Amino acid sequence: MFNCGGCGGGNPLSLLFGSPSAPAEEEVSMSSIESVMAENSALVAEQWFPLVHPRVYEKWGEAARPQIRSVLTEIARNSRGDPVGTEEACVEWKPARLEVHMFDGRSVKLTDVRRALAFLFVDDDSYLALMNLARDENEPLETLCNNPRCANIRHVVIPD
User: Fold this and answer.
1) What is the domain extent for residue 101?
2) Is 13 among the domain residues?
3) Per residue in 134-157, pLDDT tens?
4) CA dist., res. 48 & res. 123, Å (int)
């Protein structure tokens, strides 16, 4: 930018063309961004809600619907993509740990997100095969893609 020391340091072209207007800065607060993200996560969770396997209600009861919505919303908020749908690519999990707050009928505890997704969505045979694996419930399930950040339920290795 040209600044003339003799005329007060301003831009001499502004005398001919006027002063350039500063670009308007939109102030977007973090709370408004978080609000939109929370709303979108809740909408995604509502789309997944009818897909929840009946075993969840058998184990937790119909009264657990608010807790199920909460888990689904947390999964939606923390996923970069759709871990439940037909997405073929890896669905990255945003938080540092691959965990979700999962209601177990009595209390809330941290659970591996892939195990939570399996409980919530896979068919009975696949679920039983996964649960028969002798692993800690917080240990992530193995994936076909070997991506440690992947939360796509379609990538979980289901034993024969």
Assistant:
1) 33-155
2) no
3) 567 678 899 999 999 999 999 999
4) 15
